Amino acid sequence: MKGIEYKVRNNLHIYIAIDLSCNQFQGKIPKVTGEHRWIALLNLSHNSLTGHIPSLLRNMKELQYLDLSSNQLTGAIPPQLTTLIFLEVLNLSGNQYRGEIPQKGQFNTFNNNSYLENSALCGLPLTKKCANTASPPTRSQKW
């Protein structure tokens, strides 16, 4: 993969690596991408992709490496992606994501580098806290 050695752990299945990085692709990530269950590596970085991350990517149960960095992707990171239990490498940096980073499953293992240059993202592992939209209940005291 462009000079980076990456080992796919399981040998029982045929895995597919798709690297379409550094092209001039525009538009949304096709929803059909989520129908390819046996993809282990998906790299769509350094293009001009727009829109949201399709929640259908959750169907890619064997995905171990996902790089969507350096595009113009927007919206929230779909919490459905936390079901990708084999995901070891995630790079969503250099986009326009917003909202709280999902805190479940493999997402608890990724560091700041996975989310760099997304100024509207908040929550762990970033130091930027999310605004608490719900006020804590107030207790009225009777004297």
UniProtKB/TrEMBL annotation:
The keyword Repeat applies. Pfam families: LRR_8. InterPro entries: Leu-rich_rpt, LRR_dom_sf. It is a single-pass type I membrane protein. Keywords: Cell membrane, Glycoprotein, Leucine-rich repeat, Membrane, Receptor, Repeat, Transmembrane, Transmembrane helix. One of its GO terms (cellular component) is plasma membrane. The keyword Lyase does not apply. It is found in: Cell membrane. Its main location: membrane. SUPFAM superfamilies: L domain-like. Belongs to the RLP family. This is Leucine-rich repeat-containing N-terminal plant-type domain-containing protein.
